[in-house]
Each structure stands twice: as C-alpha cells, then as structure tokens.
Amino acid sequence: MEGDARLFAEKTIETFYFWTGVLMWLIHAGFMIYEAGVARQKNVLMTMMKNLLTCAVITPTFFLFGWWIYYAFQGGLVPAGTEAASAALPWSESMGPNLGDNITGVFWFAFLLFSFTTASIMSGAVIERIRLGAYLLLAMILGSVVWILAAAWGWSDGAWLYTKFGFHDWGAGGCVHTVAAAFTFGVLLNLGPRLGKYDEQGRPQAIPPHNLPMTMLGLMLIFTGFYAFYAACAVFGIAEVGADPEPWRSIYGTPMTLGSLAFTVTMGFAGGVMGAFIVSKGDPYWTISGGLAGMISIASGVDVYHPALGYLVGFAGGAFAVFVGNRLERHGIDDAVGAIAVHGGAGVWSMLAMGLLASGYPQHENVTSLTGQLIGIGVMIGVGFVPGYLISLGLNRAGLLRVSREVELAGLDVAELQIEGVVPAGSAGLSG
After folding, report:
1. What's the pLDDT score for residue 94?
2. Where are the domains of the chain?
3. Is 198 helix (H, G, I), strand (E, B) or coil?
4. Alpha helices per DSSP H over 331-345
5. Distance separating alpha carbons of residues 6 and 159, to the nearest angstrom
6. Cα(243)–Cα(432) distance, rounded to whole angstroms?
7. Rounded to an integer, what distance in angstroms lies between the CA atom of residue 159 and that of residue 182?
C-alpha cells in the first residue's frame, strides 16, 4: 500500500513537470514571433529560422554535457565525481528510456527549455547582422555551458553561492536572465550596430519594428509561457504515508504554493507595464516590454514576496528597464529588442531587491543576505560576460561573426536563404 502511494506521488510529480516543460514552448513561439515583428521585412525569415535552429542545436549538446555540468560543478570550477553527476552522463541508465525513473527525463526537459530561453534572449539583440553559424555556436555555448554553470553555482541546494553566502535566486533572475544578458552584451561589443543605426555624429536613429502588433503578440505568448517557467522552479517532496501533507518548497527550502506564483507573478507583470508606460511616456514597445521586465524583476523573490510588494518591485523593474535601454542606445550599443535592459537590468534588480527587501529570510540551514546577493550579482555578470566577449572577439577577428555590408543591405532572407520571407505588398503572387 505504501509503495502504491509513493508511485502515485512520483507519477504526479512526473506529470506536473512534463506539462510545465510543454507549456514553456510558448515562450519560444513568442520569441520567434516577437523578433520577427521587430526585424525589417528583408530579415524576417532568417530571424525566425535562427530561433528554430536554436532549439535544434542546444538539445543534443545539453543532453551530451549540459546536464552533467549542472551536477558536476556545484562546488566551483573543479568538477566533482558525485553520484548525481555520474547519473547525468549521457550513457547512464537515468539518461535513457528507463521506466523505473519518473523524474530525470522531465527535469532534464524543463532545464532544456530554460536553456532555449537563454539563447533566445541573445537572439533578438543580434538580429539583422550576425552570421548564422556564429550565432549557433554562441547559442550552444550559452545554452549548454555558460548558463548551466551559473545554475550549478547558484540555483541548487548544493550550490556554493547558496551554501557559503546565502544567495537566493528562486526564479532564475540571475542564472538565466542576467547571465544571458551579460553574455549578449559581450557579443554586441564585438558585433557592432546595424548599418544606419547611428548617424555621422553618432546619434542613434530609430529602426522601428516592421510589425509592432506582431511583436506585441509574441510578448503575450512569452508572458503565458512564463507562468510555466516559474511553476517549473517549484519543488515538492513526497510525504510519508499518514503524515501531514508536505508543503511545496523551493530549492532553498522556502515553503510556497502555486497560488503564491499566481499572485506575485501577475502583480509583477502589472507593475512592470505601468512602470515602463510612465517612464517611456506611453511608448507601446517599451510599455509591453515592461511587462516582461516586471515578471523578471520579481524572479529571485517570488517565493517570499507579498503580492503588493511584487507589484512595487515589478513597477521599479519596468521603469529601470526603460532607463537602461535608453542609456545603452546612447552609448552605441545596438540591442535591437532591448534584451540587455529587460533581462539584464531587471535580472540584476531582481537579485538586488531580494537582498534589500528579504535579508534574513530563513532558507534551509542559512539565511538570505544582501552580501550574498551582491556577490551573486557579480558572479552572474562575470560568468556571462567573459565568455560572450572573448568568444565573439575571436569570431570577429577571424571574420566569422558578422555578415558583409552587401549582405546586410540586401537583407539576410534573400542573401543567405535565397528567398523573400515577406513578399512586399503589391508584388505578384503565385502564377497560374
């Protein structure tokens, strides 16, 4: 009887995490539509192809070594030969269709979708001028090595940032969003701005989305998938038969429920929209981007915030994202979708807010601290920026990072794919 109850509980957990992974695909449908709307018509198809190939490249590499990195490097830069790390090797029993294991495959699946997200954050920022091969190499490194190393260091109950400094990043504001944004910033420093983005005096020129409603629809899909993203961050144990129900707990041991996510994530979204709306003076693009910034701003503390506090944190994050985006543009950083501002600015604020507003909150055998959050911020920025900058620098010096001027002017759809992704209005249709 006890065995049957435990099997039922394991199957329930398996089903829950499987469907969070499935629903997270909406994030990537959203990124594809969002970036296609931002791109000019001559680059729409390549932009969408890049998103599709992101998933195809990261999946096998995350299976081969990304999952192992998470378990092998929780103590630092020296890999540990733990039982969990051995079980994450691609040839282990756990990494196959093992009917006795109800957990490994669905956890791997959820982490894989997080990996897609990190690369998709970079994808939008570099549209319209990066070589496809260079992008896919960078996406693979970010999605299968860099972010998962950051997760090993700060997003597990054995992570050294957590055990030594009390770092708390429940919804991955640091190890997903900040790391990806820092990596992207390093790439953009070497990639340079799109042709025509700055005039002869270095003043930024607007390159408006070719289809703003399409962009806004893509973001709405991302918002929807983000609820599954956060649900997949929850952890719940299996209580002994006859015991009181075990509360769901985060990886840091903090009690939580799906209801807390419903409250705080939604309030963070609403606050982010309003913060961005006010600071941008009603700009539609920044207003809806502020919703995403708000959802990211509450990430590190979703499990501990009161909903009203979530609104205020989201409001500040949405406002801050607009500020950061405008400053980056004025300093020559051409981030086509504002990814660094939204994911990096809000991601850093997420970790900082947790330290400012929830220091002393108990978690397992230690407590959250502002010092731990500040150390975590530094680590997350560094582990993202250094490889992003150095690898893209090498690609740039080898002439492999950016398309030629002629290809950029012609558009990547025709020049690289030999097809028009969007046929201009008034052009001839199918003959016959």
Report:
1. 87
2. 2-417
3. strand
4. 339
5. 28
6. 73
7. 21
Give CA angle at 414 (411, 192), nearest 5°.
Answer: 30
Q: Specify whether the CB–CB gap between 45 and 421 falls below 8 A.
A: yes
- Residue 242 above 70 pLDDT? no
Amino acid occupying residue 90: P
Residues 6+ apart with CB under 8 A from 114: 24, 147, 151, 172, 176, 229, 232
Q: Give the relative orientation of helices 370-397 and 132-141 as an angle to the nearest 10 degrees.
A: 150
Secondary structure (DSSP) of 113-156? HHHHHHHHHHHHHTTTTB-HHHHHHHHHHIIIIIHHHHHHHHSS
Helix (H, G, I), strand (E, B) or coil at 303: coil
Please give the single-letter amino acid code of residue 80: A
Please state which CATH number belongs to domain 2-417: 1.10.3430.10
- Using only C-alpha atoms, what is the Rg of the chain? 22
Q: pTM for this one? A: 0.93
CA–CA separation, 215 vs 226, rounded Å? 17
Report H helices in 39-103. 44-61, 67-72, 83-87
The model's pLDDT over 215-233, given as tens digits with 9 standing for 90+, comes to: 999 999 999 999 999 988 8
Distance (Å, rounded) from C-alpha 156 to C-alpha 271? 29
Closest alpha carbon to 127 in 408, 429, 425, 423? 408
- For 293, the token pair is 């910034």
Give whole-number Cα distances, 31 to 118, 224, 384, in Å.
11, 12, 21
Contacts from 393-396 at CB under 8 Å and sequence distance 24+? 393/190, 395/134, 395/137, 395/138, 395/190, 396/190, 396/191
- Per-residue pLDDT band for 422 (boundaries 50, 70, 90) equals low
Q: What are phi and psi of 351, to 5 degrees?
A: -70, -40
6 vs 137: CA distance, rounded Å: 43
Looking at residue 189, what is its pLDDT? 97
Number of neighbours of residue 333 by Cβ within 10 angstroms: 20
Q: What's the pLDDT at 255?
A: 80
Instruction: Give the three-state DSSP class for 34.
Output: helix
Cα torsion angle, 92, 97, 100, 105, sign: positive
pLDDT above 80 (res 22): yes
* pLDDT tens per residue across span 365-382: 789 999 999 999 999 999
